[in-house]
Specification:
The protein is of the alpha+beta class and 322 residues long. It contains 11 helices and 12 strands. The chain folds into 2 domains: 138 residues, PAS domain (Beta-Lactamase); 159 residues, Alpha-Beta Plaits (2-Layer Sandwich), CATH 3.30.70.270. It has a 5-stranded antiparallel sheet with strand order 2-1-5-4-3.
């Protein structure tokens, strides 16, 4: 480690320790010129201490956020106290490549940083020491755990076969939309629909082919909805859609688009090509239902009316939404 003060050179054991320690040590003067640069920093940057000595750190590492580091160093010098930052606040100060084999999935080294004041003989802070800690193992493990938890949370909310929201999650959103209507009074519609003669599909072609039909229904539905709309698999071959800020006529247009897309498509399964249709019921929310379940019942009754009317059609609930 290159120090400018000659008295330190006599402490060879101290120098050896600072060179071999697995922590980056960088000493800067208050003009951000490098005064010391230990072996850790040489190894990971590829820059020797002799090359970087007296260079402004921002000239050598333009990726360092200058304004941010300047604020930190100014506060350390003014208050004569340490400052800390973790990888969660800022992933790294020095953009070093990650060289650890265990955490090879991470592209860059995650770092914790400590900035310590260094006082001169007068007691005034003349320099600061940056201590750079490689915490890639910790960061990688935590990030992997967070990703796993996110995946588990997603799996607990979605239907595995279709990727749509599962019944419990979707029904909770129906309840939330009902309460939103009660508060703001904006038009909103609910759709319940299912696959016509689905039992015949299963009996004729088998359950695997039936699963392909269900997945196709989900895909067509998602492709025809707006970003604000929410579809869920209610159970078996039955599905539901929440259409916020949409009256019954607007919901009918969306539903007809879905119904026609399915009626005109063919599902290519390993058993046989399958053509099928769906029936759909719409209920625009009004002040009549006392809870979201009654609203769902209205949409369900409209669905059964579509079934009784010959299937492959869209029916709007006859409950007056006004």
């Amino acid at each position: 480690m290159a120090f400018k003060e000659p008295q330190v050179d006599s402490f060879h054991w101290l120098v050896d320790m600072l060179e071999s320690v697995e922590v980056g040590l960088v000493v800067l003067d208050l003009d951000f010129r490098v005064q010391a640069w230990n072996g850790f920093m040489e190894n990971h940057s590829g820059i020797t201490a002799s090359r970087i000595r007296d260079k402004v750190i921002f000239d050598v590492f333009p990726d360092i956020p200058q304004a941010w580091l300047a604020r930190k160093v100014d506060a350390v010098a003014l208050l004569n106290t340490r400052a800390f930052t973790s990888w969660e606040q800022r992933p790294y100060l020095f953009k070093f490549r990650n060289t650890r084999p265990i955490t090879g999935t991470e592209e860059f080294m995650f770092q914790n940083l400590t900035i310590s004041p260094l006082s001169g003989p007068s007691g005034q802070v003349e320099k600061v020491c940056l201590m750079v800690y490689d915490v890639t193992d910790i960061a990688s493990s935590k990030r992997a755990l967070e990703r796993a938890n996110e995946q588990l949370a997603k799996l607990s909310m979605t239907d595995r076969l279709t990727g749509l929201l599962n019944r419990g999650t979707w029904e909770n959103l129906v309840d939330a939309e009902y309460e939103r209507y009660r508060r703001y009074g904006q038009a909103t519609s609910l759709v319940m629909f299912d696959i016509d003669h689905f039992k015949k599909v299963n009996d004729t072609h088998g359950h695997l082919a039936g699963d392909e039909v269900i997945k196709h229904t989900a895909t067509v539905t998602k492709n025809n909805l707006r970003q604000s709309d929410t579809a869920g698999r209610y159970g078996g071959e039955e599905f539901g859609i929440i259409l916020p800020e949409t009256d019954a006529e607007g919901a009918r247009i969306i539903c007809e688009r879905i119904r026609e897309s399915i009626a005109q498509s063919v599902v290519e399964t390993t058993v046989a090509p399958i053509e099928y249709t769906i029936s759909m019921g719409i209920a625009q929310l009004s002040d009549g239902p006392e809870n979201y379940m009654q609203w769902m019942q209205q949409a369900d009754k409209a669905l059964y009316a579509a079934k009784e009317g010959g299937r492959n059609r869209v029916v709007i609930s006859n409950h007056d939404p006004s």
